[in-house]
Design a protein that fits this description.
By secondary structure, this protein is an alpha+beta fold. The chain folds into two domains: about 5-165 and about 225-235, 3-Layer(aba) Sandwich (NADH Oxidase), CATH 3.40.109.10; about 170-210. About 45% of the residues lie in helices and about 10% in strands. It has a four-stranded antiparallel β-sheet with strand order 1-2-4-3, sandwiched between helices. Helix 2 (about 25-35) runs antiparallel to helix 6. The termini are far apart. The mean pLDDT is about 95. InterPro entries: Flavin_OxRdtase_Frp (IPR016446), Nitroreductase (IPR029479), Nitroreductase-like (IPR000415). Pfam families: Nitroreductase. Keywords: Flavoprotein, FMN, NADP, Oxidoreductase.
């Protein structure tokens, strides 16, 4: 096993950070690694907003659902799908298609994963903040995002001040399909559910437990940000 694979397999979300700053050299390398990610048709349709002002961080933490680590992390980056740059190059660009929204989301994810892996290889940790999409219009206003730019998620980075247990992932038998999609294996799911219950029992010192199936039922038993299409449309995304 090489160091790259060790870094990938050792991933865990970090939500508590020390006061140590990230050097400009390390931050520059992290951004360079993000920029090196694959890009659909080489559109390079992502912009990264680095947020450093305390008052802006506090507002973003609030917008994201009062996630305090947004303001306490050494760095906070917002990954945005960006076709405004392309419109400036070609004013009559055909924009607003759902496919472009998907490309922007995929490219943002690829860049952010490169950034986090690079950071983790340097001894840093981080956590993604999808909660920015709780209040996308407020985020757009705060970051002065023009039409055809949309904040997909944020990324906290810093030196870890915790070593949480790795959260168990779905077993390979439930993820990897051969040639054709196969039905869900109820026995494998049951085994994973028990693994997740044990994980939460240990993490909470026996105060709570929840299976993955219960998590999914809770998460998908209600509307998920029903305002999202309107917010995307206001920024010129997913119009057609």
């Amino acid at each position: 096993m090489n160091p790259t694979i060790e870094t990938i397999l050792n991933h865990r979300s970090i939500r508590k950070f020390t006061d140590q700053v990230i050097s400009s050299e390390h931050l520059s390398l992290i951004i360079d690694c993000a920029r090196a990610a694959s890009s659909s048709s080489h559109l390079q349709c992502v912009s990264i907003i680095r947020v450093t002002r305390a008052e802006n961080r506090e507002l973003l933490a609030e917008y994201a659902g009062n996630q305090s680590y947004v303001s306490s992390a050494a760095e906070f980056l917002v990954f945005c799908a960006d076709f405004n740059r392309h419109q400036q190059i070609k004013p009559d660009a055909k924009l607003g298609f759902v496919e472009q929204t998907l490309i922007g989301a995929v490219d943002s994810g690829l860049m952010a994963q490169n950034a986090l892996l690079a950071a983790e290889s340097m001894g840093l940790g981080g956590v993604y903040i999808g909660g920015l999409r709780n209040n996308p219009e407020k985020v757009c206003a705060l970051l002065n995002l023009p039409e055809h730019v949309f904040p997909m998620f944020g990324l906290c980075l810093g030196y870890p001040d915790q070593v949480p247990e790795k959260k168990p992932r779905l077993p390979v038998d439930l993820v990897l399909h051969q040639e054709r999609y196969r039905a869900l294996d109820a026995q494998k799911l049951s085994e994973y559910d028990e693994q997740m219950r044990e994980y939460y029992r240990e993490r909470s010192q026996g105060k709570s437990e929840q299976s993955w199936s219960e998590q999914i039922s809770q998460a998908l038993g209600k509307e998920a940000r029903p305002f999202m299409l309107v917010s995307l449309n206001k920024q010129g995304f997913a119009l057609k």
